[in-house]
Every structure is written in C-alpha cells, then in structure tokens.
Amino acid sequence: MSRRGVLLSGLAVLAAGGGGVAIGALQHLHTAELPPAPAELVAALAAERSLIASIDATTGGSPSVRAALVHVRADHAAHQDALRAALATYRPAASASASLPPAAALHLAELRAAEAQASTRAAARAAAITGRTAALLASISACEASHAELLA
Amino acid sequence: MSALDDAWQVALGAEQQAVFGYDLLGPRLDTSAESDRARACQDQHAILRDSTSSAIVAAGRGPVAPAADYPALYPVADAQAARRLAVRLEEDCAAAWRYLYALAAVQATPPQGLRAAAQTALTSSAVRATRWRLAAQPASPTVAFPGI
Q1: Residue B5 in contact with residue B64, Cβ under 8 Å?
Q2: Is the reported ipTM for this assembly greater than 0.85?
C-alpha cells in the first residue's frame, strides 16, 4: 500500500469511530519507547504510599500529635506527587499503581521508627542512582528524618 | 573552576555563616534550653565547616575564607527573631548541601564520599531546622523538600 493509501486508511479508521483505539495504539507505541523506570524511584513511590496508608489508619493521639500527623501526611503527599511526576518520564511500572494491602494503625513510636527507616532507605536509593531524581530522593530523605524528629 | 567546585565552596560558606550566625542569635534567646541548643547547633556546624574545608583541601582546591561579618543576618531584636534566624541559617545550609548533592549526582566521578557527606549535612540541617521551627513557627514545623 502506498503512503497515501496508509494515510487514507488511518483517516478512515478515525472516521469510522475507531479514534479511541487508534489513539490508544499510539500511546502504547509512545510509552513503549520510554526507558524503564528506575527500581529506586518505583520503590520510593511505594514507600510513600505505604507511609500515607499507615498515617491514615492511625487514629487517636493527643491534639498535638494529630496536628503533627497532618503536616507529616501533607509532606508525604507532596513526595508522592513529585515521584509520580518523575516516573511519568519513564515507561509505566505496574507495581507503581498496584493496590496496597490494608495498613495497620501504628503507635507514635512505631510511626517515628517508620519515618527514620524511610529516611535511611530514601538516602540509600538516592545514592544508588544518578541524575536529577537522586537529589529529589536526597531531599525526601532529609524530610523524613525531620518527621522522626517532629514525632519524637 | 567547575560548577561542582563552586557549589562545594558555597556549602562551606553556608557553614561558616551558620557558625557566625549562632554567635549572633545565641545571646537573644531567653531560655537556657534554647541557648544550649544554639551552642550544640553551632558546635555541629563548626565541625562540619572544618571537615568540609579539609575535604576541599584534600581535593586540591583552596577553601574560601569566612567573611569578617554577615550584615544580611542583622538585626536580631529578640528571642523570636533569634529563632527565625536559626531556621534561616539551617535552611541556607540545607539549600547549599542539596545543590551540591544535585551537581555531584550528575557527575560521572564526583569526589569520593561527597554525595554521602552532602546527604548527611542536608539531613542534619533539616532536622535542626525542624527543632527551631517548632519554637518559631509551630504551625508549619516541616517542609516537604528541604533544601529546595
């Protein structure tokens, strides 16, 4: 088939109401060309989602603790948004959008330990990669250390 | 001199400013607990200033000298202004170390240990800033992206 014929066939598909299918195919071709997401970024996003789920499952506590948790959760939501934006430049990873198992409510000391552990892991992930996203993970690590301080 | 070298010197300069700044704000604090904390913070910055200077020398560069004065840090009128200045000093250090980290992270062969040192310094300043924010501005004790 000539190039003109291919173009006409494509237009015919669109005109026949197959636009969604065609656009979907183009998007698939586009994402297939993207590099795979670094495992460190995917793991960092999963860690943020898990921390948010743990905070959401944690009720009770003094008003000052509740206020602190509001700040901590807002920071994790910002991390999650930034990591999703960073991952958007890579081929979608199935695990990045997988549903999480229900989170258990944590005591304050457990949340503090989880933040400290998250900070350590984020720093290790940052050290394992190069490029701009490494500095993002380094900053997230610093934030999570400050959460551990806040919950002390 | 490369951008990485410049950023390294800026990080050293931020530590020098922090050491000076805690001298400036310490006398304005009105509780012994906060005065003790200011001294501890200053000690930590002095240690980091010296280790950073040594690392720069070991890498074959000449460390920048501290300024004789830091007029931008004045005035410190009272205890609340002192707490706010402490937050600012820590945020300035965090920004300098995060920037150095970012530049080192795109280098094929950054000086050995530089990224780890920058991460530690960034995290330490973020934690100290949180302690001071709890006193100065408890409604917003943390920032999502320290150093940015």
Answers
A1: no
A2: yes
